[in-house]
Design a protein that fits this description.
alpha+beta; five-stranded mixed β-sheet; 5 strands; disordered C terminus
Length: about 300
Amino acid sequence: MPKSKPAATSKPAATSKAAATSKAQAQAKPKVAAKAKSKPVLIVAGVALAAALLGVASYATTKPPSSPAAEGAADPSGDPSADPSAGVYAQLAALARRDASDRLALGRADAPVVLIEYADFKCGYCGKFARDTEPELVRKYVDAGTLRIEWRNFPIFGEESEAAARASWAAGQQGRFWEFHKAAYAEGAKEKGFGKERLAALANEAGVPDPARFTRDADSAAARRAVGRDQEQGYSLGATSTPSFLLNGRPIAGAQPTEAFTEAIEAAAKEAKAAKAAKDPGPAETAKTAGPAATTAKPTGPSPAQTQAPGR
């Protein structure tokens, strides 16, 4: 059966060069997986099975409507507005770093909902999400303290993708990652490419204060390690297209409509609030469980020792 074209995810272009790159990436995956095994967060039993839902979600959002799978029960990982407890895995939720010093994150480190985004600056659908959906999520949920967005560089379109990823990290070292992110995802930006001069121009547009440091950082081993860590994590999770997301441990594939994300965030926030209340009951709940013993009245009047016989 012929495969349908993804409606809201981007994959490497079907050129001979891209095909060779994809083949090389496929051959490299076993090595990547082997490296990932050394990372404590991915040693948790069952994480590979749970993480594979990113691939399942990607298929679920792009499968032909006539396929048998489409006629059966829908996979909740492909529908962000479904029951928030369905398709949620603690192993995946643990991938949220919640590091207050993370320059590639927005929002409070203790926000009840964390959206992890795996994306590529050359991905058209990633740009669509960045322009059409993310600003609304920031205004409505990040600014209110409900949501935290954590970026993961997941370059899959070759050398320019890798260079743009390192440049974004370098901009982040000077506190300008999100400004660089906005400039790189502006309408028509990716069509201009991400060569060295273009990346320097984007850094300038983003207000990076020290251009010389930006250039050094973008070409540094530290930048390669940071991007490589994110990239390995994405491949280890079975992500095959961009953008891919984890929302409190639940996979979501593609630049879905804003309403789908808002419904999923609100449902996850409600679930997180209920879980917190069950774990840490407030004063009112504590008083209820204390019962009558906690409200025993104190005796009034003088004690027997204070009462003396008349005339003494």
